[in-house]
Amino acid sequence: MPKSAAGPAPRPMRADARRGYDRIVAAAESLVAEHGAEASLDEIARHAGVGSATLHRRFPSRQLLLGAVFKGRVEALCAKAHGLLSAPDPGAALVTWFRAVGAHAVANEQFVAGAGDHCVAGGCSRLWVAVVCDRARRMKAVRPDVTITQLLKLVSAIALATEEEPDGPAEADRLLDLAIDGARAR
Question: How far apart (Å, rounded) are the C-alpha atoms in residues 48 and 63?
């Protein structure tokens, strides 16, 4: 019987291996949030309660570890967008979504910088913002000439512009208010 081009499906992790993996990712998330993308891998292993060799076996590179942490955060962001599809007010849902995207961008600057090609944010975020934005546009809650790409650029620019400010998240929120106001249908 011929193998598929992709090869055999990976075997699922044993329960103890999954717990170790999850502990490593949780420790990395905590320490990178505290110390940035260059947090010590040895310290991450210590916080996870595993040896350095175990961490390196699970994550042969720093980028793969940061990618795993970032992937979980993006999945949570996408789940939030999916939940907003049933919100009764599509304009308010779009505002909620962009506030979540803005907070995500501000909070995850270290992960984006360190995860490199292993980031998974683009496709999922873009898909859900398209769905949320299209619904708002159909209900005339957002201007018809506003594109998804423009909105994502605004959120990214706001996050970038406020990343070095002492009160970055609050300033990002204020700037996001201005951007959202400009996108509303008149």
Answer: 18
Residue carrying the six token digits 């995850």: 108
In three-state secondary structure terms, 142 is: strand
Measured in residues, the chain has a length of 186
What are 139-167's pLDDT values in tens digits? 888 888 888 778 878 888 888 888 788 88
The secondary structure of residue 14, as a DSSP letter, is P
130 or 175: whose pLDDT is higher? 175
* Arithmetic mean of pLDDT over the chain: 79
Residue 39 corresponds to which tokens in the numbers above?
A: 């947090």
DSSP of 120-170, one letter per residue? Answer: -HHHHHHHHHHHHHHHHHHTTSB-TT--HHHHHHHHHHHHHHHTTSTTHHH
The answer to whether the predicted template modeling score (pTM) of the entire model surpasses 0.85 is no
